[in-house]
Design brief:
Elements lengths: L15 H8 L7 E3 L6 E6 L1 E11 L4 E2 L9 H22 L11 E9 L5 E2 L2 E10 L5 H13 L7 E11 L2 E2 L5 H14 L4 E5 L5 H8 L3 E3 L16 H20 L3
Parallel strand pairs: 1-11, 2-10
Antiparallel strand pairs: 2-9, 3-7, 3-8, 4-6, 5-7
Helix pairs in contact: 1-5, 4-6
């Protein structure tokens, strides 16, 4: 079965096309996802979602020279939030974990929006970033952890902090001895003459939906993501050709292997 579906990429895409197939049990015994890495067999991955934090100050927006001292509480709170998130990320970097194929968990600050003009005092601020977690944890776990982090941040009485999430993908792990993994590694060796190593992924792929929700093993084959999310995105045609050959041979290997 070959499927194509849109709405894949966060924050606008919510994978409803793929999740609809999963809900209807249209799965197969294994899956190949055309995204990820060309030379690695991914057998585990971190979960990842987008967190949003809105900070609001009571009172109107005003000119810099007409502000009262308490209007600066908004900026002070934003700075404290960033500091807390960076401290949490430092904790993750130093923590021991049981996943040698994965790096540490992480909290990343991608956007901080404070103010809209050089001499106006804003009444709202917005922060956004990612949280990536190990297979031993879940999306619900990190939601609770962010709420605890936000709750302990000192703030003045005129400040309100609210958090929300955009779910992207759940953490996963599966047996590296699955037939689809062996089929992929053999195909890669035949096409390239190289050995494909087992690995983990911090990026979110559709594997992060197929494995935890569909309950089937899924491997990824890159069509060249080296320039993904860059200002100038492109793919190399020879890379794509190699990946397609590996994918087709993986299918043949899988179907010819004994169950």
């Amino acid at each position: 079965m070959v499927t194509a579906y849109g709405l894949h990429e966060a924050p606008l895409g919510d994978s409803r096309g793929l999740l609809n197939l999963i809900d209807r049990k249209i799965l197969g015994d294994a899956a190949i996802v055309f995204e990820g890495f060309q030379d690695r067999a991914i057998v585990m991955g971190k979960g990842q979602s987008i967190w949003n934090i809105n900070v609001t100050r009571q009172g109107d927006v005003c000119h810099e020279l007409r502000r009262e001292p308490e209007t600066d509480n908004l900026l002070e709170t934003v700075v404290r939030i960033v500091q807390q998130l960076r401290e949490k990320n430092s904790e993750f970097l130093q923590a021991r974990h049981q996943y040698p194929l994965l790096g540490p968990q992480s909290v990343f600050v991608g956007q901080v929006h404070y103010g809209d003009f050089y001499n106006r005092v804003p009444s709202q601020a917005f922060l956004q970033g990612t949280w990536r977690w190990h297979p031993s944890r879940s999306f619900k776990d990190v939601q609770k952890e962010l709420k605890k982090l936000v709750a302990k941040i000192p703030r003045a009485n005129n400040i309100t902090i609210e958090d929300s999430w955009i779910f992207v993908g759940e953490a996963f792990t599966f047996d590296p001895e699955e037939r689809i993994v062996h089929a992929l590694k053999e195909a890669y060796a035949t096409v390239t003459g190289k050995t494909m190593e087992l690995a983990g992924s911090s990026a979110i792929l559709d594997v992060n939906r197929l494995v935890p929700f569909g309950k089937i093993p899924a491997v990824s084959i890159s069509l060249d993501g080296a320039r993904a999310h860059a200002d100038y995105e492109y793919v190399q045609l020879d890379h794509m050709e190699t990946s397609c050959r590996v994918a087709l041979l993986t299918v043949l290997n899988y179907l010819n292997m004994e169950r």
